[in-house]
Amino acid sequence: MNAKISIRIAARVLPVTVMLIALAAPMALRAQEHPEDNLLPSWRNGQAKMAILSFVHQVTDKSSPKYVRPEERIAAFDDGGTLSTEWPIHVNQPQMVFARQRVKAMAKQHPDWKYQPPFRFILEDDNKKLDQCLKDPWNKLDLLRATYGAMTVEEFGSVVRGFLKTAKHPKFKVPFTEVAYQPMLELLDLLRAHDFKIYIVTNYGADFVRELSESVYGIPRDRVIGTTPEYEFKESPEGGYLARASNIDIFNQWAVKAENIQLHIGRRPILVAGNTDGDLAMMLLAAGGKQPFLNLLVRHDDAKREFAYEENTDKVLRAAQSRGWTVISMKGDFNTVFAFQKK
Amino acid sequence: MNAKISIRIAARVLPVTVMLIALAAPMALRAQEHPEDNLLPSWRNGQAKMAILSFVHQVTDKSSPKYVRPEERIAAFDDGGTLSTEWPIHVNQPQMVFARQRVKAMAKQHPDWKYQPPFRFILEDDNKKLDQCLKDPWNKLDLLRATYGAMTVEEFGSVVRGFLKTAKHPKFKVPFTEVAYQPMLELLDLLRAHDFKIYIVTNYGADFVRELSESVYGIPRDRVIGTTPEYEFKESPEGGYLARASNIDIFNQWAVKAENIQLHIGRRPILVAGNTDGDLAMMLLAAGGKQPFLNLLVRHDDAKREFAYEENTDKVLRAAQSRGWTVISMKGDFNTVFAFQKK
Predict the structure, then answer these.
(1) Of the residues A165, A206, B32, B121, which has the maximum number of CB atoms within 10 A of its CB?
(2) Residue B268: closest CA among chain A residues belongs to which residue?
(3) pLDDT tens-digit series, residues B7-36
(4) Cβ A240–B287 below 8 Å, yes or no?
(5) Domains along chain A?
């Protein structure tokens, strides 16, 4: 088994090594094809791509002083804004679009919603007032509780699958299973090929993301760590089942993301990718370990192909700049942003 | 990738099929070798072994109406009393032996422990009074809080590894890494070979069990679901780290075991193995699903090779008997109990 893994690693590491030698010798490079294009084709050659390829090479090459054993190659990825588009949150974020659809579908059973924010603003399609209202996290929790809870986990999965089959991204007009960033999908593939264990660590609902994690990201359900309601085991004549209570038990953001990495994984990550202050604790956790690490901060600076915004990035951007972490510019580093935009 | 997996499954399922045909024709069986001996050699041929082999065959044979896709082959195993010996708990259970050692090592910094149960009874080696005292769960929590908390997760891991290297089981006089039941280790191997995803779901501390899960059971750290303290992310000059608080956040027993399966895995198990009422909710969860399932209840009825006891088994035994779940008799079904007992 171990021998097999070693052979696979060797076979896969080789192209990265070849590429690094090629990059280090630009004169030679011009005379040949660009071998690094095969590895992360949707990334432009630049510092971010170089940092990724160099790191992957160093931690997987057995002769490297930075070698990390496969079982310790833990990678933690935020979802919204890091793996997939989510801006503006109250309009385009998949779980917010889901919540809005649910409010409209459930409105008949809740006549009071006509008068009660934030439900009222959703029923009236008043994005401006909704945005203002949801700045208060308690209003946001009200919305999530009303639309995500009080059913079995199987029922919830089925409702989400129905949503993912029919709903379209309001701006890009494609299903939410197609709004992942193409360069990040390639990065996931590269890491998988080098025996990284990849986890999604998101403030989105875990059970929501689990319905697309396998098909979109190739990440199994048990590697999705997210916000969760209280689960309640209930007996039935057949045996038992799990219900989603209406309260949120774990809100997976900021320090909680780092704490949940211990709860779910039990190892420090050596690679963390995020895009807001909510991901800073995970990055600090990687930085505080004894292993080599790579922190990737995605910046949304591409108003043409995606969106340009800087909300909730003050702290993480300062940390990235002062500590020399890798900042990814969507505008500068992504050749392609979405697969559907390819000509 | 999928084609490869299918070939591997086919190759591995074949012996199970051959064996089942052989068992169904006892006359023919006598004339040849016992092919089932190669699969679970430490199990005696009987109902439990037959139920296991039949189930594994049915859910992995693509032509079977009970076929279950590999990603849904979730198996949840209790640890103490199911995978390894733990009786009597306050004397021989590994995490209790650990707690007792820690009390003695830390006694100098806690002069009050000389007067304060349960610490006092540990320092006086009074097992009888300790046993009585720990029947009150609050006293047990006091003990676990004092000996398992208030350090970083790395420090805790290092203390546990030191314990596992030096401590011996009080009765069997072997390290705690050698007190797993040999037939259960073979069952884990069989399930792994048939692409089951195996999780430990234990009331023991998750971080304690993680220090032996990979080497003893071949189960990676992130598939250990157990009792956990509150984790606290703290910043440091290098970045950050996680501390174990002194309070227990999740006590993983009874309904919580089923609820934590949703939190960590997000799928119903199709195979559950346990030995007490604490495992009943997990078994009911498996029984309540739409997939075929196998619930295994280990009974401790072998005073000669292990221990004979029935504590906390009323409900689960009644459920197993009325619902026809598979009961494993250590005396009747285990050829060998521990590898170290082999001649």
Answers:
(1) A206
(2) A241
(3) 334 434 444 555 555 454 444 444 345 555
(4) yes
(5) 36-85+180-341 (3.40.50.1000), 89-166 (no CATH)
